[in-house]
Amino acid sequence: MLYIYDSYQTSAESWAQLMTPGGSHSVRNTPYDCIFIALMVEMNHRQYIDTGGFDGFYTYFATDKFTYGSTRRFWPQLKSIAEQTDSLFIPSVGPGYIDTGVRPWNGGNTRLRDNGNYYGNSWKAALQTNPHIVSITSFNEWHEGTQIEKAIPKSVYGLLYKDYSPNSPDFYLKLTKEYAEKFAAIRE
C-alpha cells in the first residue's frame, strides 16, 4: 500500500496514465502494482478515485474541520463514496494539533488534546464509519503536536514540546492500543 501525499497536485488524468490498466505508463499487473491511496482534501478530489485509478483515499490531517476530508461529520459521506466506487476510505485520526512553533500564523487550526478526549473522539468518528483501515496522524510529528510516542517535557531550540501531563509518558500509546482493540473487534 502506498499513500500519496498531495496527490491532487498532479492531475487525475496524469495519474490515470500510471494507475489504470490501459494507461500509457501503467504499473497495473506489473511487479510495481500495489494499492494506491490518494489524499482527499476537498470533495472535488473524488476525481482521483473516479478517473485517476487510485484504489482509495485517506484524510490525513489531524485537525477536525481544517479540510473537507478532515472534517469528521463528512466521514460517513466519504465512506459512502468509497462504497459507491469500490474503493477504500481510510479516515485519519490524531491526538490534537498545534504547529504554531513552526507556523505562527496557523493558530486557528490548533486542536488541544483535552486529556485524550480529542483523540478518543477522532477514533470514535472513524469507527462509526466501519472502515477497513484507520491511519494515525502521527507517531512522531512533534513540530505539529500530533505525536503519540512517549513524551516528557522538553525544550528544543526554544520550543517547548507538549507532554501528556498529568498522564504517563505512554498515555497515547495506551489509548491507541485501546482503540485499536475496539477497531479489531468491529472488523471481526
Automatic annotation (TrEMBL):
InterPro entries in alphabetical order = Glyco_Hydrolase_99
Q: How does it sit in the membrane?
A: Single-pass type II membrane protein
Top-level taxonomic group: Eukaryota
Identify the Pfam families for this entry.
Answer: Glyco_hydro_99
Q: Which GO terms describe its cellular component?
A: Golgi membrane
Primary localization class, coarse: Golgi
Which keywords belong to this entry?
Answer: Golgi apparatus, Hydrolase, Membrane, Signal-anchor, Transmembrane, Transmembrane helix
Instruction: Give a yes or no for keyword Kinase in this entry.
Output: no
Query: What Gene3D superfamilies does the database record attribute to this sequence?
Result: Glycosidases
Which residues fall in a coiled-coil region? none
The record's similarity note reads: Belongs to the glycosyl hydrolase 99 family.
Which named protein is this? Uncharacterized protein
Its ancestry begins with: Eukaryota, Metazoa, Cnidaria, Anthozoa, Hexacorallia
